[in-house]
Amino acid sequence: MTSWTPPSNLPDFVIAPIHEAIDNMPPQHLLPPQVGEILDPDQAYNHLQNYAFSQGFCIVVTSCDKANTYIRFACIHHGQTTRNWRQLDEHRTEEGNRQKEYTNIRARGCPWQVYLSYKGITKGAEQKAWFLGITNGSHADTHDMVPNPLAYPIHAKRQPRYAASVQQAIALRATQISYSQASHIMAAQDLSISGKAFYNSTRGSDKTQNEDELNCHERRFQAHGMQ
Fold it and tell me: Which of 9, 40, 126, 208 has its Cα between 20 and 30 A from that of 151?
């Protein structure tokens, strides 16, 4: 089985939680997805997300059909443009309205994409299953692999300690102490949370999946009697 080797530029305090997460993954999840694997949607999501974690990227559900027989997964860096809701200039200039360069760009045109198809086990068979297919297994050098996969909120929120960290953050927010003070208290409890997540912990903004993913899951459960 494949083992994970930490990048040489990561400090020990970052490596430890990554190692813990990888050690808790089924070893086969560290292997690349294979065409023809039979996985239900939840199994596929966990397998693909764990594999992406070990490689330094993360995946998102980009679409599923209304018949609930097809689900598409892509690298989070898919797409050609990043939404600019505030109509900011592309780059920072003295005359422009952008105060700093925007470096956390998700949309990089990454072609990595796999899918699940619900179809007969053999041609014309009544018994059906979810089969994995690969549209493109390459990132085509559109972006670097992230040394610390926990930098992706999707990965951070899937870790067992994250829920405990959020609950403690909510309690500490009620005391009106600063993030710096709270982070020291949480570190002593072997917990951690980002500053943004700390201040958002009481605002109901901590969502584990985007709306499109939830809609896909809901339609799938309804179609296959899994309510």
Answer: 40
